[in-house]
Batch of 3 targets.
Target 1
Amino acid sequence: AQSVAQPEDQVNVAEGNPLTVKCTYSVSGNPYLFWYVQYPNRGLQFLLKYITGDNLVKGSYGFEAEFNKSQTSFHLKKPSALVSDSALYFCAVRDGGGRRALTFGSGTRLQVQP
Amino acid sequence: DVKVTQSSRYLVKRTGEKVFLECVQDMDHENMFWYRQDPGLGLRLIYFSYDVKMKEKGDIPEGYSVSREKKERFSLILESASTNQTSMYLCASSRPGSGEQYFGPGTRLTVT
């Protein structure tokens, strides 16, 4: 079985400050890890993914995520938050050798205050 | 530009009605997915399909069925709508092995 936990329902950060949105996962094989973002009244948009290779992956809009195998985490980060980053963020995992479908976390709402 | 479209943005149906939600993708993707999104629960997989006429149950298939007669189209069917099926329904597609999914805008279904 595969699962994802996003421990924070909401994260608040001031514009210009660094942000982190947390994600931990559980899979039986090698993990494929993803972050998606959902802006109000829109579908989900892909941000970045980790399949293999460098533990720090860079994605769209200046976001990056760090894969930590020992802590089974894949936290989303950005050095300097923008008000326009305010949205709902979902972490997702897939077992690289198993089920084809992703399992999503419950989502974390990011609020960036001006 | 890749595109996944869903037949309706908003839909209101009565309890007991049969409901069809349509999804079309123009990327020639083999894989297609139906999720429902509820506050605090994230996205939950209802069904997915990895080829025409092939389907697999997701985590919450009860009360739903699907149809995939053509590669570009994946339909979700609520056989007899109930109020607990009021939700946002999202369709997605992907290439085999990719994992990266492309989502439609969603259909907000209300069952009264």
Target 2
Amino acid sequence: QQQVKQSPQSLIVQKGGISIINCAYENTAFDYFPWYQQFPGKGPALLIAIRPDVSEKKEGRFTISFNKSAKQFSLHIMDSQPGDSATYFCAASMAGGVNDYKLSFGAGTTVTVRA
Amino acid sequence: EAQVTQNPRYLITVTGKKLTVTCSQNMNHEYMSWYRQDPGLGLRQIYYSMNVEVTDKGDVPEGYKVSRKEKRNFPLILESPSPNQTSLYFCASRVRGRDEQFFGPGTRLTVL
């Protein structure tokens, strides 16, 4: 039973377009929400992360939007480039206790950016 | 270069033949974990270790063993592999009290 539900499973976007990936969670104890980016043949790498005290975080073309009341968060990739083609995983964790910083991952979204 | 290394990167084996996948990190991280990645399921934690000689089960530990005799190494052991353990495996490490995990390049395992 996945604690973080991610959609869509895959998406195709034209170069310059916007990619949007959505995630939802149930455990209100989660207090850290990272996105990991994985290129073919590589391990995942941290892309951007947010804590629930803010509703949005932007780093370059990547933005996380966070809705605490709806228990949802999303990744927006603006001006998508072919180099953004990768699999993106959302995740969630909580600090402290036996589950200290244990990451629960979504199922992943494969993004393909067409030139 | 700070990194997590795994060996082998690719392995094809047969049911029941014991195997070990090694993992090593050079960042002096306390925490290390093993994950498996399967289509439609994302990454699921198999085992984790909070320090030398301290290990615990993750979400899918059945059929796996681990050990942590040195801080830098965290091998994954499959005593009697079965076809349902065919998967992509990742080792990861992080600093105690910090959120970011650093992943290795992965090991593609096929059990026939």
Target 3
Amino acid sequence: GAGVSQSPSNKVTEKGKDVELRCDPISGHTALYWYRQSLGQGLEFLIYFQGNSAPDKSGLPSDRFSAERTGGSVSTLTIQRTQQEDSAVYLCASSPPGQGLVNEQYFGPGTRLTVT
Amino acid sequence: AQSVAQPEDQVNVAEGNPLTVKCTYSVSGNPYLFWYVQYPNRGLQFLLKYITGDNLVKGSYGFEAEFNKSQTSFHLKKPSALVSDSALYFCAVRDGNAGNMLTFGGGTRLMVKP
């Protein structure tokens, strides 16, 4: 079946511009995560959605970052007034219902963001 | 706070030899431990996880990992490496008593040479 998809695959933007990154999770998956992977670094947790519950935003690095998940499916990560340090690969993952937080996560291919 | 350490940036092994990729963790509660692999130009793929039960966990592609509570380790192993195993490997931990965050290590690049 279809995996997690993300768009665009690559995004180059000028410093100060806003960007939107999209994630389509696997159908039926109730949990959705956003991570950031900087060059040579591990993955940094950004935000977690579970069903209709309030999202866990504890990983968002600043108030320039926000995310929405509409209808419990597609999610959009928005970065306002981008800075060069925002350059990274942004990864989305989803996981199925049941077993709560011990489920493995299924990752998308990522969006490579470059801020010039 | 929870944390994961992967002390080796790169591991080199000859094809056919056993491989070990090291991971140690720190959590205040019960650890939920995961290994993921990232092949070039592809997304992360789940390999295996430890939640509870047997300390030796078997996963995809012949990989296994051993949970050692006293040493707070969860090393990834494979008895006989393949060239196709060459990839970036990430260990991750979630504290069973605290929140939704999955904390990843910095990754270890495995290079298997023919």
